[in-house]
Amino acid sequence: MDKSKSYNSNVDYEVIYRNVKYPRLEFKTGELILILPKNYQNHEDIIEKHKKWINEKKNFIERSLIESKDKKLVERNFKEFKLLACHLAGKISKELKLEINKIYFRKMKTKWGSCSSKKNLTLNTLLRYLPEDLVEYVIFHEIIHLIEKKHNERFWRIISGKFKNYQEMEKELFIYWFLLQTKKEVIVSARR
User: pTM (2 decimals)?
Assistant: First the structure.
């Protein structure tokens, strides 16, 4: 995997060459990453082509970073979080008449949780720092994937049945994600 840093007038970005078929753009905790096939040339063309999307995403991230300064992390130890998460998962699965096999807890780099086809729920240990309503939302969101795997219209219709303000909750999760990324001591303690 080859890496290089590039700069243009609007945004700094990192170029990573991988064994991929098509180029793609990603924002990872505020940094733009351009992933390219190994022999790809002219990465500036992709940046230029997607300039509007990049600027919109960059502005959204900057606003989220500003909003994150007003947020407070919840002081909850891992044992308390585990009890809360297990209680909420039990309550939600009972409500939905769905069965969960196991619940796993681990530090995840890019997402709050996942739910496998084997009905295993995996939750990011960083959720312990979030308000209870957001923890409940994430658990509900993941369990709904047992009904609908994709984030399609049907999925969001089911979500909105319980969480009318799901778009606001998604935004809150995004803001908390950035807040947690700026708190290195939290990241280290989440592993325990």
Answer: 0.76
